Automatic annotation (TrEMBL):
Record-given protein name: Diketogulonate reductase-like aldo/keto reductase
PANTHER family the UniProt entry points to: 2,5-DIKETO-D-GLUCONIC ACID REDUCTASE, NADP-DEPENDENT OXIDOREDUCTASE DOMAIN-CONTAINING PROTEIN
Residues annotated as domain NADP-dependent oxidoreductase: 24-265
Keyword NADP among UniProt keywords: yes
Keyword GTP-binding belongs to the record: no
Species assigned in the record: Arenibacter algicola
Alphabetical list of InterPro entries matching this protein: AKR, AKR5G, Aldo/ket_reductase_CS, NAD(P)_OxRdtase_dom_sf, NADP_OxRdtase_dom
Pfam families: Aldo_ket_red
Keywords associated with the record: NADP, Oxidoreductase
Amino acid sequence: MKKEISDISGTFTLNNGVEMPYLGLGVYQSKNGQEVANAVYWALKMGYRHIDTAAIYRNEDGVGQGIKISNVPREDVFVVSKVWNSDQGYDSTLRAFEKSLERLQMDYLDLYLVHWPVAEKYKDTWRALEELYRQKNVRAIGVSNFLRHQLEDLMESAKIIPMVNQMEFHPHLVQQDLIDFCQKHQIQYEAWSPLMQGNIFDLREFHHLANTYNKSIAQIVLRYNLQKGIVTIPKSANRERIISNADVFDFELSKLDVDYLDSMDRNHRFGPDPENFEWSYVL
């Protein structure tokens, strides 16, 4: 169930009733230590309440440090991490989760995701996430990079429907059929790479929209995400960009412009394809 897009503290409600902030900070490629700690600190100080990391990012330690020095209460921050491919499987996922908690210096996560649909492993991995959820070690569980057929396969045996599916999403990769499928099953859609790994700034169409709304290109795209009911986590380690990325609550895109951005879909990925990703990389 979606809510009005109102301010940086706003949330979407997951299918288990947990409130997930719809704007967060992504920390992919942010260096562990001071760089990522500063980014998290700046984000929390200016009102962000959602931080997205992963074991493979190798910066969970710094994320935990940034949350700690911000003095924002732990229960007020929605913290997300992900189990990496080489750790998938039932027992190994449980161990990987504990290691993530140790690095973050936390005793629970708000959301834990299966990072990629590793063939012949993701069902056992999901069983482990269900167990972590039953034990209340995590408030919500979900997946990342799962296409429709992978979701359908998982859901055949799952006792708990995923609460989130985090996907590459931007105007050149809309995948509306997948969005519709997730909405039908109350799986919250979430965007990674909303700015097309920086390529969005080269598209002439966005310069026109930015001028029309007197906003930056990044702000146009992030507002587009939110108006489609999609959680978004732009990544940055730059203080000014972190602040700017959150300045998206004083305007609204017209339906015509949302439809126009949808029409730019090219089914083009800037990240890996879930159908043929190289799974063997070891953490």
